[in-house]
Design a protein that fits this description.
Blueprint (H helix, E strand, L loop, with lengths): L1 H31 L13 E7 L5 H13 L6 E7 L4 H13 L4 E4 L8 H9 L4 E4 L12 E4 L2 H18 L7 E7 L5 H14 L5 E8 L4 H14 L5 E4 L2 H13 L11 E6 L2 H8 L5 E4 L5 H12 L7 E3 L4 E3 L3 H4 L6
Parallel strand pairs: 1-2, 1-3, 3-4, 4-5, 5-11, 6-7, 6-8, 8-9, 9-10
Antiparallel strand pairs: 10-12
Helix pairs in contact: 3-4, 5-6, 7-8
Beta-D-galactofuranose binds next to helix 2 and strand 9.
Length: 340
Amino acid sequence: MKKYLAWCFTVLLAILCLGGCGREEEEIQSKKLHRADAPVYDEKYITVGFIQTGKESDWRDANTNDYLNTFTEDKGYKLVYIDGNSDSGRQVKAAYDLIYQNVDYIIIDPIVEDGWEDVLEFAKQKEIPVIIADRGVSADQSLYKCWIGSDFKTEGVKAAKWLQDYLEENGRKDEDINIVVLEGTEGASAAIGRTEGLLSEIAKHKNWHVLASRNANFTQGEGRDVMEHILWQYKDIDVVISENDNMMFGAMKAMEQAGIEYGAGGGIITISFDALGEAFHMMEEGKLMVSVECNPLIAGIAEKVIKDLEKGREVGKVQYVKESVFTYKNAAQHIGNRKY
Ligand code: GZL
């Protein structure tokens, strides 16, 4: 009897293992085969899936247009553009879809840093190279080929150092200075880095005080709303630092509505990031006093990375774009040659 039971157990164990192997094999096979309903792209093109954050700012539009103008069919690319619609979950799902569509490359501009490990791991299993562009991810660097973008912390430091120089030049070095910060999207590496850079410099000045530092999500509308509320709360603001131009444009509307003076002619000092075309006009008028450039023209660098990968070459893991600082004093001499 015991032998029969042992035989049954062995057979049962074998069936379970085979079933499991069958299921496991099926799982692996499914990763190799894309979904039946996935589009099949023409092999003559290099198919590049690009997942954008959304349309939250003019900077973003310039960044998107750069990709649309770079990855064109006459240059041998099929660009599959996906608008993340400011929804990180939508971005991650789009990445899975692109993997199932078996595109040749995936470029991701992540709204926020977190939540990317699993899908990047899956892309790696399916051997689809991923390039992270503009904002960063908290996932391990081994899960993507490279990151291309700006040194956001340095941008924050540049803004604070401009303020330090400006106050010294205007005899206000030892004055108590009250600062308001409009932060970009919570969890976005651009906001994290700029805030870190700003606060690291502000901390060096015991007479500089941050009255409020609030998220306005990189949008003009939220910049205006948040600034309106801050103006109700604080009457002694000396500096507004906005982590992008669009939020500053909104804050300017709020200050005008409140009858508050700002800009190079006197009143609240205005400091921003991005250095968009409109910011140059505002600096020419003296409304905006400085904009720390954040270069949106990244697609050309991404294309170079793809060309190198196509040739089997190694690519640099971290690739910074070139950028500068523009002020109300030098905006006029640069405005004519701006590309965005
Ligand atoms: C910065 C970029 C930021 C811009 C904003 O590289 O991610 O997002 O500063 C944009 O204008 O919305």
